[in-house]
Design brief:
The chain is mainly α and 399 residues long. The chain is built from 16 helices and no strands. Helix 2 packs across helix 6. The chain starts with 33 loop residues before the first helix and ends in an 8-residue tail after the last helix.
Length: 399
């Protein structure tokens, strides 16, 4: 007999609704096995270039599958939502990412310690970096939940990429300031990814530290203490890297740093494209309007959504941050990216192509009125906007 948590509720017409992608979510677990896949492919073919299998998988195979399979705009009906949320099968699809993630990291350390050529070691580090980048997304899914075990797992997933402060800044900073000039994780119209990266990395660290210091001060605790979630997150990374270096030798440390940088690059490139040029308006009282679907770029490409736990349905995530990935919904009014995240990441790396594709979409979204967009101040004249409109600052309290 099927348990109540997995019984598909009937639709209004009396036809049971079933998640057609239910078992496809397990495909997401292919990502943390990328180092093993690379090792197997090299062993079979003797092609050393296949140590770079991770980037090829992420940025060639996934975009091809996105193009072949196409989008899926299906939303679960309202009556199916409670059972979907409670179905623990979907949680285990994310939980299992972590042991596979760290198994792949240990496997890579073994190979690095045995001696690899520099190109091969870099290729494997980049493959591991893809795992680390998607692990940040897995941590993103887990870190929003109320269950303490999921929040702990989120911190563990972030340790590999040395980006544990993301847990604090994303939940308590980005979700408050999203699509405003005060948000370091919201990119601006005309701002290249390469200009955005130093701004968002430095800004996110500052924001996380400020938010955590404020939280501890309000609770009358010392900032420099074991209660500081930013310090404990960074400490977890130091412990991990130190342990691996002690176990496998100093040769693994440069590779660990390379894979962490790759993971961070993937995360921040995704941040760059999620809210590019989008801006929340200010109400008469000076506060920002509520976050709406129009403040996030979305994509319904099926393959990318499966491997990223529907991160591409980003509007619904910001409207309902506690909602689990399997219940996130498509909004017709949300601006749509021309392709899935895997393709758009590569496009973002090539600034002229990115601007050629995305700048007209932002302008069309605002009917050509650049004053309504989150415009990079150095690009104001390029888009025909007065500089004053692009540099004005809104109240820092958010909305």
């Amino acid at each position: 007999m099927t348990s109540p948590s997995t019984t598909p509720p009937a639709s209004p017409a009396g036809t049971p609704w079933r998640d057609r992608k239910r078992y496809a979510w397990l495909l997401g677990l292919a990502v943390p096995t990328l180092p093993f896949q690379a090792g197997a492919l090299v062993a079979v073919s003797d092609w050393q270039v296949l140590w770079w299998w991770g980037p090829f998988f992420a940025f060639v195979i996934i975009p091809l599958l996105d193009a072949l399979i196409g989008p899926d705009q299906e939303n679960p009906p309202d009556e199916a939502m409670p059972a979907l949320e409670k179905d623990r099968y979907y949680r285990w699809c994310t939980y299992l990412y972590l042991p596979l993630q760290y198994a792949g990291l240990l496997y890579a350390c073994v190979l690095w310690s045995r001696g690899m050529s520099v190109p091969d070691a870099l290729g494997l580090a980049t493959t591991v970096g893809v795992v680390a980048g998607v692990a940040i997304n897995t941590a993103h899914e887990l870190g929003h939940k109320r269950e303490s075990v999921e929040r702990r797992l989120a911190r563990i997933a972030l340790a590999q990429s040395a980006y544990g402060h993301f847990y604090v800044e994303h939940n308590h900073g980005h979700h408050i300031r999203v699509a405003t000039r005060e948000d370091p994780a919201s990119s601006r119209l005309g701002e290249s990814l390469w200009a955005f990266l130093p701004r968002t990395v430095a800004g996110s660290v500052r924001s996380a530290w400020h938010l955590e210091a404020r939280r501890l001060t309000r609770r009358r605790h010392r900032t420099w203490s074991h209660r500081n979630d930013v310090l404990t997150a960074w400490g977890l990374t130091v412990l991990l890297f130190a342990t691996l270096t002690a176990a496998f030798g100093p040769v693994v440390l440069p590779c660990l740093l390379v894979q962490a940088v790759c993971g961070i690059l993937l995360l921040e490139t995704v941040n760059y494209l999620e809210h590019y040029g989008l801006l929340r308006e200010r109400r008469p009282d000076g506060r920002y309007e509520r976050v709406a679907p129009r403040h996030s770029w979305n994509s319904n490409n099926t393959t990318s959504n499966i491997f990223l736990y529907q991160l591409q349905r980003h509007s619904d995530h910001h409207a309902n941050p506690l909602r689990r990935y399997q219940t996130l919904r498509h909004y017709d009014e949300a601006p749509q990216l021309p392709s899935g995240y895997a393709s758009m990441i590569v496009l973002a790396w090539v600034t002229p192509l990115w601007r050629r594709v995305m700048d007209p979409k932002v302008l069309a979204h605002y009917d050509g009125d650049t004053r309504r967009a989150n415009l990079h101040h150095r690009r104001a004249t390029r888009y025909g906007a007065p500089v004053g409109d692009s540099t004005r600052r809104a109240p820092s309290h958010g909305g």
